[in-house]
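USER:
Make up one protein:

ASSISTANT:
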Amino acid sequence: MSEEQKKQEEQFDIVWLLLYLWSKRKFIMICVGVVTLIAIVKYVSTDAKYKASASILPVVDEGMASKLGDKGGLAAMAGVDLSQSSNGNIITADLYPKVASSTPFLMELMNEKVKWNEPDTVMSLYEHVVQRTPSFGDYLLAYTIGLPGTIKSWFEDEDSIIIDNSGEEPMYVVLDKYQRGALSEMREMIVVEEDPIYGTIELSCYAESPEQAATLASKAVELLQKIITEYKTKRARLSLNFIEERYSETMSDYEKIREQFYAYKDSHRDMISERVDIAYQKLSDEYNISYSLLKTLSSQMEQAKMTLMENTPVFSVVEPVVMPKEKDSPSAKWHLVLGVFLGGFFGIGWLLMQLAWWQLFNEKKVKALIEEYKIEE
């Protein structure tokens, strides 16, 4: 078979296929109508979402020692070595999305009291999930696309939350179905992304009312800054707390020894004896050692405070949270276009699969169709 004949045959097959699909246009239109209707029902049953955003510029003061200038010399005279302060505690931008999607962050945020669309209703997202009545759209999705998940939920146990607080941080968390549902919704509501061009952190909150979106976005920014700061300064805070405890203990011992030393000194004034000299020298040595240790701890405490200050990240809110006026989603146009596209895709796909099946198992049907839609030359 020549190449020209092959091209003619391919052209004939494409034209034949288009004619066949055109003859089935009624079926395709029915598919488009049904899927579009489902999309419209989904649009009507979906609550409006409002978007509130904030832009954060994370900054770490890495040059604390150099910025102190002449004060660095005074600090050195006091025994504080600024050159040993750690300035490599840099916050990477990818840390923010990880923190924002973590379970402790979302659990604290989902317990924040916010106002809902219902009149005079103020409750947390967790309480709203527990008390919420599913809408028609929720039932439609649960028993169509989400049927496997619905069946799975029937056999899940209702566990209560268990947090092991015996240590400084919780070791494990067990969630019930309402908490899992609230966390799932919260992960869709709070979105934190890095802007690679400007190096900023973009935080967005999607909620069902403008006030709710602004409230949660503001709380998320505050909580994010708090967790990042605690994470980056944890070692410095532990070091400072340890030194402050030792300083307090040493100060207490120093005051006792000082009181004993001066009391003994006043009571044995103008008295000369070998026994008095030995006791006086012993108290004097204890006093000097205690004072020297107290002075050393004081210098270390100032050093620890400098290190904590240097490692504390500074956040600049480039764009604060603004209460939105217009809803962000759902979009009626998007649902309509998606319904038409998916309906046409399903209808045409079904017809093509039907042709492929007949070609494999029903050659008579294929021949009859070819004769029916044969193009006259």
